[in-house]
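Dear support,

Our group has been running a series of protein-ligand predictions, and this particular one with beta-D-glucopyranose is the one our PI (initials K.S.) wants archived with full inputs and outputs. We had some confusion internally about which version of the output was final, so please treat the block below as the authoritative record. The input we submitted was:
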Amino acid sequence: MKLKQIILATSLVFAGSAFAADVEVLHYWTSGGEAKSAAALKQIMKDEGYDWKDFAVAGGGGENAMTALKARVISGNSPTAAQIKGPSIQEWGQEGVLANIDEAAKAGQWDSVLPKVVSDVMRYKGHYVAVPVNVHRVNWIWANPQVLKKAGVDKMPTTWDEFFIAADKIKKSGAIAVAHGGQPWQDATVFESVALGVGGADFYNKAFVKLDQSALTSPTMVKVFDTLGKVKGYIDKDAAGRDWNLATAMVINGKAGMQFMGDWAKGEFAAAGKVPGKDYLCAAAPGTAKAYTFNIDSFAMFKQKDAEAQKGQVALANAIMSPKFQSIFNLNKGSIPVRSGVSRDKFDDCAIKSMDDLAAASKTGGLVPSFAHGMAVQSSTQGALVDVIAKFMNSDMSSKDAVTALAKAAKTR
Ligand code: BGC
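Confirmed final output from the archive:
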């Protein structure tokens, strides 16, 4: 073989393997705190010799990312891994496009380091097809202590009555009481905390996990919408379309007093150098102190023909489950580690509260899946429920009409 041919042949081989050693990862972590967290994973993969191809699709809650993913899978060009969670993992499994990563799970003893409720969700027909990243709690309220102080609010509200008294005082002091972004998933995020606070965990489970018509049409659900309608009165008029992290920024810079948001909001406070207990406060949403709405991020692996790409998937799964990554990532992200064996030492008071409340709620039946974040019902049902909530937030729809529409939406499959 002539040298030129050899060079050509070798460069082709290298070109092939360089491409094969890429891991292309679809995610929607694009805000300040989220991007910092994702960077930790990119770094670990780079250190292991993989080229990270970032497939980031902006849009909180991940709706845009899911649309992009569908387009790619349909065109036969699936990414290596994608940020998918909850029942959607089963939906993708049924399409026959997910890869088996039992090898990584066995080597890493996932069965023993993960809670069974989590590992069950990561499997399709008994085989691991996804790897969990963290546990986010959704039923939080975040606040700026300076704004509260100025308004004469001396503690975080623990009941809805206390909440509305605090909100009135903040409004009177000239600040915005509730920072919110008018996007359907954010509306649903607030709604589910209101539902949990007003109705309790049993009611929540009946209505949003079992989709029980009697709970969905109950007077309690009317009360939930009444309460949400009242919350609406404390949101500023420019909220339409606002991204969640910009709403968090309003709390950070003292423009607003409080925000209902999952603890990815803590990632924003942390990225801005803020300290919990001093610069910001965290508390369970009113009436939900004994409950815990969980939201577990995970990456599903998509079938790859190339053996190198399959190796990349195993490496990615191993990296995600490593205690080192679980610690760095979750410190930045605001969530807590999903696996056992990660030291609590570096975590702040809000994270420790999340860990303790999660353990307590799992014993008392207060642990519920977030339906706003794709943990409770299949995506078509979730979409229909969220549409009703968004319509309620953006119109003068009555609570009774909202209840009727919600109960109908719950039948969507
Ligand atoms: C995800 C979080 C993400 C948030 C905002 C949630 O559904 O679980 O990881 O930070 O949406 O995009």
